[in-house]
Write a structure and sequence with these properties.
With 210 residues, the protein is of the alpha+beta class. Helices cover 29% and strands 26% of the residues. It has a single domain, classed as 3-Layer(aba) Sandwich (L-fuculose-1-phosphate Aldolase). The radius of gyration is 16 Å and the shape is globular. The chain binds zinc ion (ZN).
Length: 210
């Protein structure tokens, strides 16, 4: 059974500023990782619903647009999981997020991933996190639910204020994987480089799949 809320935006996007496609130098490194994860279906879409899953972000400095001490990041757009390759039309900048109103200020050619609030919360929970990769895999998720020390409880939905609170209260190592027991198939890796966040996922994938 797949979470039917997957891909449904739960935050306000009224403050989205629509722009033309982003330049490739802004998203290329993230896209390189996305391709690797898509190949092993850690990013993809469910059959037969075709609901996409998987979203990646990298911390950025967009202070020239909105000056804030809060995390700002580049993230994959909503409903992109089914696409093998993303272009400058599929990436978007998150300039600010209001934790009280759940309003996102974003800028780009598309709306940000429905899971933007969780990315924001995790960046906020640990200052030296620079990359967050959220992926899905049924086999790995089941394994992590049994074995893994870093998790959010089964009654906590992904993308909710309660999830944010969970992240803030966790004692997070420098890099790692967190399994969302309340978000079927879902887990997230984070690190202070994209390579480290991606390698964590591929190592785990190969450990379970040979
Ligand atoms: Zn998910």
């Amino acid at each position: 059974m797949v979470d039917i809320n997957e891909g449904v935006i739960k935050f306000s996007t009224k403050e989205h500023n629509q722009t033309k496609a982003l330049q490739s130098d802004e998203y290329r490194e993230l896209e390189n990782w996305r391709e690797k994860l898509w190949k092993v279906k850690l990013i993809g879409s469910y059959f037969p619903s075709n609901i996409g899953y998987g979203n990646l972000s990298v911390l950025k400095d967009y202070k020239d647009r909105i000056n804030t001490e809060e995390p700002q990041f580049l993230i994959t757009g909503t409903q992109t999981g089914h696409k093998e390759n993303l272009s400058g039309e599929d990436y978007v900048r998150v300039l600010s997020f209001n934790e009280k109103t759940f309003a996102v200020k974003s800028e780009g050619p598309c709306l940000p991933s429905s899971e933007t609030p969780s990315h924001y919360s995790l960046y906020k929970a640990k200052k030296d996190i620079k990359a967050i990769f959220h992926v899905h895999d049924s086999k790995i998720w089941k394994y992590l639910c049994e074995e893994h020390p870093l998790f959010t409880p089964a009654d906590v939905e992904y993308g909710t204020p309660e999830m944010a609170r969970q992240f803030l209260e966790m004692d997070l190592p420098e890099k790692g994987i967190i399994v969302m027991k309340g978000h079927e198939d879902g887990f997230v890796s984070y690190a202070n480089t994209m390579d480290d966040a991606g390698e964590l996922l591929l190592e785990l994938y190969h450990k379970l799949n040979g």
